[in-house]
Amino acid sequence: MNKLIIFSAPSGSGKTTIVRHLLSLEKLNLAFSISATSRAPRGTEEHGKEYYFLTAEDFKDKIGQNAFMEWEEVYAGCYYGTLKAEVERLWAMGKHVVFDIDVAGGLRLKQQYPEQTLAIFVQPPSLKVLEERLRNRQTETEEKIQMRLAKAEQEMATAKGFDVIIKNDDLQQALQEAERVVTEFIGR
Question: pLDDT tens, 174-186?
């Protein structure tokens, strides 16, 4: 059976680092689900690599075509979603699909595919540490940082809806724990 492995967390929690580690382990046979978004690319991001970058109008058209497994307007006018065609493409390759998506999207996917989904919440040590991580990135305006921190508080309250919570206060431990739970889930 094709499996779905969801990683959700507040921005800056380390979920992307954990997902990259797992993708590097050939024995897990994982492939990354590239999300679609209506936001503009940041830095060196490329269409079809980090995200499928769509205009807000194109994104809305795909919503109308029922092309998404899940989608959300994360911030006003800024959409993110999982294209059905992307997951079907990866399943056709015989891969288990890994997601690095927001909390609401992760929980919606889990509801739709409960038997084949493992939903993992990556929890930062604290909101203070999370703020430090976001500031150290030096990629966001103060306004964006404050918006992300406010959202993080709400997201941390939903952690109990996930199958597993991995606290990322020690990266090596978090990587080992993620590898262990994903290996067990795939082996079922």
Answer: 999 999 999 999 9
List, in order, residues 6 or more apart from 101 with CB less than 8 Å away: 6, 7, 8, 35, 70, 80, 82, 109
CATH number at residue 97: 3.40.50.300
Reduced to 3 states (helix: H, G, I; strand: E, B; else coil), residue 132 is: helix
Q: What is the pTM of this model?
A: 0.85
Q: With contact defined as beta carbons under 8 Å apart, do 97 and 141 qualify? A: no
Residue 78 is part of which domain span?
A: 4-187
Nearest in space to 165 (alpha carbons), one of 120, 124, 125: 120
Rg (CA), the chain: 16
Q: 103-139 burial, b if ≥16 CB within 10 A, otherwise e? A: bbbbbbbbeeeeebbbbbbbbbeeeeebbebbeeeee
